[in-house]
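Human: We require from you a standard protein entry with sequence in single-letter code and fold as tokens, and nothing else.

Assistant:
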Amino acid sequence: MITVGVLFGGRTGEHDVSLCSAASVVSALDASRYAVVAIGIDRAGRWYVQDAPEVVPDPEFGRKMRLERTGTWLAANHPDDNRLTLREIGSGREVRLDVVFPVMHGTYGEDGTLQGLLELAMVPYVGADVIGSAIGMDKDVSKRLLAQAGIPVTPGVTVSRRDWERRKREMVDEAIGRLGLPLFVKPSCAGSSVGVRKAKSEAELCDAVDFAMQFDTKVLVERSVPCREIECAVLGNDEPAASVLGEIVPNHEFYSYEAKYLDPDGARLSIPADVPSALAEEIRSCACRAFTVLCCAGLARVDFFLDRETGAYYLNEINTLPGFTSISMYPKLWEASGLPYAALLDRLIDLAFERHAVRAALKTEC
């Protein structure tokens, strides 16, 4: 039996979202095939093996994994058997993992930090590696690479904290002059719409950038496109496949954190999206190409804007560890494509072992 370590929580503004995703993953993993070990990481970065993983109701998110803080745990690698070992200092108890399934969104979980630790431990894990995770997390860097590859991206400018502090007036004039109003402002390295605001005036733009700078040292200011929000799920390693398309129909002004997670009527998911077949195929192909350009592996959700006025599409962003609740867009897109939730988890774990075998065969000396 394969021992799967499901990592959740973390030092991130998306901590609670991760607990929700973990509740669904742990509940759906096939108990006849896997021994599941739930490992919670608290907001201070401490790891805790959960002796009795428990899914509990939550007034805001519906349900989530309980994170019990018991014991003092250390992680160690065992390169001889490609396992990650967790050891509790007080009791000496050890837990060994054959593969890790990170269900951690945002900073330190989705940005390559955790992936670097797992690479050092030489353990198979689900999802993109260090470089793919880091690129996918940084919207500024990923947009530049996508644009270089000829993939259409939303017009925008990047504002660093240093420049904002030194020449705010100039940067406001540049953004409005190039892009007009209204504008969307978002942290470069955050997800789940954390720190995102819409600015309809110069004063609101200044406030929005100041707000976003609380979450990152680099902020994107982007043109507001009158659009439909189209999403595509990608699955695979070297030969990625794309799901049917889905559409987010927000009932808020835009698809904010509140609309995604706190308001049960915040948005409606339309699957499959009502998009002409030729255009849908073009977007699906673009999603797979972006997946490859940005060095992704395992899974990613690729989000597009479809201009209501011109019919043009723009790649908005890529998410290398998207939300994984049973009602999240990524698993629902694959379910609509003929791959049920539990089978999707199986496929992701298989892909983790597949990629690990390739990397383990590489030489480390001349």
In short: The mean pLDDT is 91. The CA atoms of residues 97 and 189 lie 29 Å apart. The longest strand covers residues 227-236. The chain has three domains: 2-125, 136-152+226-359, 156-223.
